[in-house]
Amino acid sequence: MTLRSLLLHLERTQNISLLDINGNIHTSSFLEEIINSISNGCNCQSLDCTVAREQVVNSLGPKRLELMADDAPVDQFRQIESLVVAIDEAFNTEALASRSK
User: Fold this and answer.
1) What is the pLDDT of residues 37-50, one digit of tens each?
2) From the CA atom positions of the chain, what is the Rg in Å?
3) Are 26 and 60 in contact (CB under 8 A)?
4) Do 8 and 16 contact (CB within 8 A), yes or no?
5) Partners of 19 in the β-ladder
6) 39, exposed or middle or buried, with CB in 10 Å at 0-12, 13-18, 19+?
7) pTM above 0.85, yes or no
8) What is the number of other CB atoms lying within 10 angstroms of the CB of residue 81?
9) What phi and psi, each to the nearest 5 degrees, are found at residue 98?
10) Is 23 left (phi over 0), alpha (psi -120 to 50) or beta?
11) Is the pLDDT reported for residue 21 higher than 80?
């Protein structure tokens, strides 16, 4: 799966806007931070790099821990948890599709 296809999946399933009309990252600062964490954790130089489930989920670990603090914004914690579920769904869907070929 590419970073671009993962972000498109997240847009569809989470009802969020991550990419602009030209395919560039265009989003809120919180979501941009999440995308940058994924991109850095997967050593991506472009949206067309290949990402793996483990890399993606592990790259979000530090932010998830930060958002578990008592004084962290609850809405951001809920959003990152929802994103992790959607990320799993994206990789599950891809794995199932490859098995049916």
Assistant:
1) 999 999 999 999 99
2) 13
3) no
4) no
5) 25
6) buried
7) yes
8) 14
9) -70, -25
10) left
11) no
